[in-house]
Amino acid sequence: MRRADLEALGDRAPKGAILGVFVPDLDTKELLVANRGAIYFTTPHFDGYSVVLVRLGKVGAGELKELLRQGWTARAPKKARRRSR
């Protein structure tokens, strides 16, 4: 994490590995952060972007797989999405 992000989070800064993942939209991001704050969070650096940060040590494998699938679907070109069906 960037130093500015660590300073913004203070004591809430994660200690373990994290991953940034695109989500379909800002509403999804807000819901994940509000309802599952132990797993998902954000920093000022990602304000306005449909990216959520994931505490990898707290998320289950199935949930992470689904999150990555949704993120890929949200960002992949239409042609690539058609080929993957």
* Unreliable sequence segments: none
On the 0-100 scale, what is the average pLDDT? Answer: 86
Widest sheet, order of strands: 1-3-2
Order of helices and strands: HEHEEHH
Shape: globular
Largest sheet: 3 strands, antiparallel
Could you give the topology of this structure?
Layout: H1 3-9, E1 18-22, H2 26-35, E2 40-41, E3 51-55, H3 61-75, H4 78-83
Antiparallel strand pairs: 1-3, 2-3
Structural description of this entry:
The longest helix has 15 residues, at 61-75. 45% of the residues lie in helices and 14% in strands. Strands 1-3-2 form a three-stranded antiparallel sheet. It is an alpha+beta fold.
List keywords for this structure.
alpha+beta, 85 residues, three-stranded antiparallel beta sheet, 4 helices
In a few lines, what is going on in this structure?
With 85 residues, this protein is of the alpha+beta class.
